[in-house]
Amino acid sequence: MKKVADLKSQIQRSADEHYNKGLSYYQKHLIRKARKEFLLTLYYHPDHKEALDYVKNKLHGEEFLSYEVKEGDTLKDIAQKNYNDPQKDFLIAYFNDLGKDRQLVPKMILKIPILEFTRPRSPMDQKELPMDEKGEIVDTRETLNRAKVAYRARDYPQAASLSQKILEYVPEDKEARELLNESCYQLGKSLGLKKKYEEALTLLNQVELGYKDVRKIIITMKKQLAEVHYVDGVKYFTEEELEKAIQEWDKTLLLDPNHPKARGDIENARNLLKKLKDFK
Known about the structure:
Elements lengths: L1 H26 L3 H14 L4 H10 L5 E5 L6 H9 L5 H7 L13 E5 L9 H5 L12 H13 L3 H14 L4 H20 L3 H8 L9 H25 L3 H14 L6 H18 L1
Antiparallel strand pairs: 1-2
């Protein structure tokens, strides 16, 4: 019994210590640091009313993701998916004003608070974490949270970069794959509208082919890029730079094998080159 009491006392001290740090940061207007300390308070003491009040009502900013409830979801399931920790279900319940007995309905949209701290880990936890080339632990959950924040801010390059980093260590991470798909998809479409087709295709080729309409977009952009090369070939042809024209039309056919003119123009240019050589 004494060991249990000692443990409870230690947990309470840790919660109080982080709460007081949070208050100090908040009074100094260091909001991100305050948020981290209040969230650590809640890790040790989930029912800490003052810390919950600060996190929910006094720390402003876009610190949420949206989650659409799926058939069979529970709060613990959703906490596991988003935080890799089912015990953080109380945070989701609190931020969405859900009572303990509230049933989740499919397609319900929940606010998921973004956590910017890493929960304390036991030595057993650390053994399961991936290591980088220096032998240091890579916290993929923290990196995923940063990727989500970047995505919410429409910083798609950063979101894609962070998601790719996670997948290097945990290739089966579905959330990271989804973020990479969506970030590259959005970036690729944006670059396509700016007619930067090569850059767009490089990004879109990182997206899984079954994702949204990416297959159709890739086909369309390949044809658009093929036409760019075809027009460049025509310019070279009119300037009598036949070899460069052929190179451009070859690129056209690689991208669009059924291009209506490129194949015939290549044949015509090669015949002209042969005649010029014979003439010399």
